[in-house]
Amino acid sequence: DSGVTQTPKHLITATGQRVTLRCSPRSGDLSVYWYQQSLDQGLQFLIHYYNGEERAKGNILERFSAQQFPDLHSELNLSSLELGDSALYFCASSVAGDRRTGELFFGEGSRLTVL
Amino acid sequence: SQQGEEDPQALSIQEGENATMNCSYKTSINNLQWYRQNSGRGLVHLILIRSNEREKHSGRLRVTLDTSKKSSSLLITASRAADTASYFCATRWEKLVFGQGTRLTINP
Fold first, then answer.
1. What are phi and psi of A84, to 5 degrees?
2. Residues A63, A22, A55, B52: is their CA dihedral positive or negative?
C-alpha cells in the first residue's frame, strides 16, 4: 500500500459527460502529480501541484483541469469526454516538488471508460 | 514526446536468467528512476540514480547511468516469476517523464 488513495477505482460514462477523479496523497506529501496511461500513448504527465499551487504542466487538454485543496487532496476534472479519453488516470505524491525530487508514490489509479 | 525510451519493448526469459533493460533519453536530467508496474496496478518505485552517479545496486537490481550517452540500464539478476511486470524508466528535470516501458515475462 503506497498510502495514496484514488477514487473512484472504475468509472463508466458517456461521451460529452464530465467526471471528477479524486486523490489523497500520502500523509506529509505536499506534491501531487497526475498521469494518464493509455495503450497507445503510454504514461503521459498531465500536471503537478505543490502545496496548492500549480508547478508544472504537461500534455493536459484544455477540457481537463485540476486543483489541489488546502488539505492537499487533489481533483482532476475531465469534461466534454471523448472516446479517446478512456484510460487509467494515476495520481502520485511526493514530499518535495523540485527537480531534485526522488521517488513518487502512486495510487492504484482510476480506470475511466467512455462509451 | 516521451523523454525516455526503453529497449526492448518486450522481453521473455527463463526463471533464473538475468534480464537487462535499457533506457535512452534526450535532455538534461537531475536523476533517473526505474519503476515497476504489475498489470493494471499502480507504479512502484524501484531505484533512483542521480546524474553524478554511474552505478547503483539494490538487492537483485543493478542500475547504470551514462550521461555522456544519455542512457541507463536496469539489470535484474536471478529472475523470478514474480518479476513479471512492465518496467519504466523516468527522467527528472522539471517534470518526471516516463518512457513507454519494457514488458518483462519470466517463464517458470
1. -70, -10
2. negative
Grid cell locating A59? 500534455
Assess whether pLDDT exceeds 80 at residue A20.
yes
pLDDT digits (tens, 9 = 90+) for B36-79: 999 889 999 999 999 999 999 999 999 999 999 999 999 999 99
Nearest to B97 among A45, A101, A109 (CB): A45
Q: ω before A8 within 30° of 0 (cis)? A: yes
Dist. CA B14–CA A78, nearest whole Å: 43
Subunit contact B93:A99, Cβ cutoff 8 A: yes
Are A115 and A14 in contact, with CB atoms under 8 Å apart? Answer: yes
Whether residue B37 contacts residue B101, with contact meaning beta carbons closer than 8 Å, is answered with: yes
**Nearest by CB to A106, which of B43, B94, B95?**
B43
Residue A104 CA from chain centroid, whole number: 13
